[in-house]
Amino acid sequence: MSVFHAFRSASADREDEAGREPGDPPARGRLRRVAAWTATTLACLLVLFALDAPDRFDRLTPGQFVRIPVEALLTVALVLVLPERARRWVAAPLGALLGVVVIFKVMDIGFDAVLVRPFNPVFDWSFLRPGFEFVDTSVGRPAAIGLTALIVLLVIAVPVLMALSVLRLTRLAARHRTATGRTVAVLGTAWVACGALGVQVVPGVPLASGSAAELAYDHARQVGSSLNDRKVFAKQAAVDAFQHTPPSQMLTGLRGKDVVLAFVESYGRSAVEHPEYAPQVDAVLDAGSRRLKAAGFGARSGYLTSSTAGGGSWLAHSTLLSGLWIDNQQRYRTLTSSSRFTLTRAFGEAGWRTLTVQPAITRSWPEASFYGYNKVYDDRNLGYKGPRFSYATMPDQYTLNTLQRDELSAPKRAPVMAELALVSSHAPWASIPSLVDWRTVGDGSVFAGMGKGENAAWPSSGRIRGEYRKSIEYTLNTLVSYMLTYGTKNTVLVFLGDHQPAPTIAGQHASRDVPVTIVARDPAVLDRISGWGWQDGLRPARTSPVWPMSTFRDRFLTAFGSTPSASSAPAASHR
């Protein structure tokens, strides 16, 4: 006899559980008994779901529920020995706590599906605003507001419903003490035996489960380590190999060059190796390599491991520019309120005009001052008059054309170092522009008719991977075309992915690696990185070296002639 069957039989009790009152007609009594049985069944299923549900997206299968949760056995055993008043005081808080565990499981599943990691209760509340804005621009303001209201309602309702469910079930357990005690003894013995022997009814799913308690413990421990991370990060940030390098000894191998550093949204290793994308994306890269070589350009490519996946592009940007591992919002805020020496500041102190082009930024961006930009271009001052392409406020071609028109075409100027965010490959891939003649880009009106607006419908599940691939192809073709049209001997292009796309696109268990490429016409530039072991061309080889993204700043500065400070050692920046 199982716990469920004991509860089901108990739900048919005549007066106290069915709720029948003296004088009730038989039909009404039967209706009350059915309602009571249904409520008990739903409470039991809700509690079992809460206890056995996984906390990872790829484990969300029916087999995960073929388990014996030890938390249920211990709770029932406890209420059997408690007096009635104490039982209520114990059952209700335990139920509410289980509701909180369910909320954390849902958050973990959501974060795992998008960002390939569990939810962090200390750092990750800051993702709520970007999440709202993403839904707003992708689906529409009503949907974003409705989803927010639903989330708030569930956060309140789930602990309450779970507390009521546990109270109901513990009352039944106490009322049928003997049968329940025997059931708990049998299942408890089975749990111990199955745990000792590693019994699995479903492959990979132990029958003896304690997943809810494990999750609660893991998140509690995570809170402690997250709070301590500030001290750990402060020690890492305090050591900087280049902070005190004189400007005359900085980036001597790039003097007179315009350096364009472009982050390509969601351009991960999967784009060049996953069988659904690689044939077409690799063809674009190989064709681009041939075209650039014919025009006198060379290229070298490798891999970097991003500090984030699925989203959080700003974490990757700050990791590469600061030389520190920025994988959470607390580190990002600590970094951007510090005096850390960034790659952009290195160029600025050495005589370059530094700027950034961020078409997805639509409001004030106070962190810009930390990076040391002389100029910030964003959605508010880029002058774009064309249609919006879902999340992307403008096509990547317009972003690059604005850089060329407003900065790189100016006569008698200092060399420019520009950091760009290319966002045409941002989810939801619902609207992808086409390349046009660079001479016709103008204010972007030429793109009229291509975009579907900011609330364009997501591609269907059968099309979304193909649309992602097309967006990557578009941006890569745009970069190649830009260099062929405007690149000179004094142009150096560095482009890389910010992070892998979500697992639904990249595939489960994908790495966090992103391609990185340096393109230049001056062979002396690529000679500087000949010892890196990178692959010739725009496509990195499977065997190309993989470095943490946080090491790029120091490697780049060293390769191009910067001299480390005598008083500092390189920072221990990776994890």
TrEMBL record:
<feature type="region of interest" description="Disordered">
    <location>
        <begin position="1"/>
        <end position="27"/>
    </location>
</feature>
<feature type="transmembrane region" description="Helical">
    <location>
        <begin position="34"/>
        <end position="53"/>
    </location>
</feature>
<keyword id="KW-0472">Membrane</keyword>
<feature type="transmembrane region" description="Helical">
    <location>
        <begin position="65"/>
        <end position="82"/>
    </location>
</feature>
<keyword id="KW-0812">Transmembrane</keyword>
<dbReference type="InterPro" id="IPR017850">
    <property type="entry name" value="Alkaline_phosphatase_core_sf"/>
</dbReference>
<feature type="compositionally biased region" description="Basic and acidic residues">
    <location>
        <begin position="11"/>
        <end position="23"/>
    </location>
</feature>
<protein>
    <recommendedName>
        <fullName>Sulfatase</fullName>
    </recommendedName>
</protein>
<feature type="transmembrane region" description="Helical">
    <location>
        <begin position="179"/>
        <end position="199"/>
    </location>
</feature>
<feature type="transmembrane region" description="Helical">
    <location>
        <begin position="143"/>
        <end position="167"/>
    </location>
</feature>
<feature type="transmembrane region" description="Helical">
    <location>
        <begin position="89"/>
        <end position="107"/>
    </location>
</feature>
<keyword id="KW-1133">Transmembrane helix</keyword>
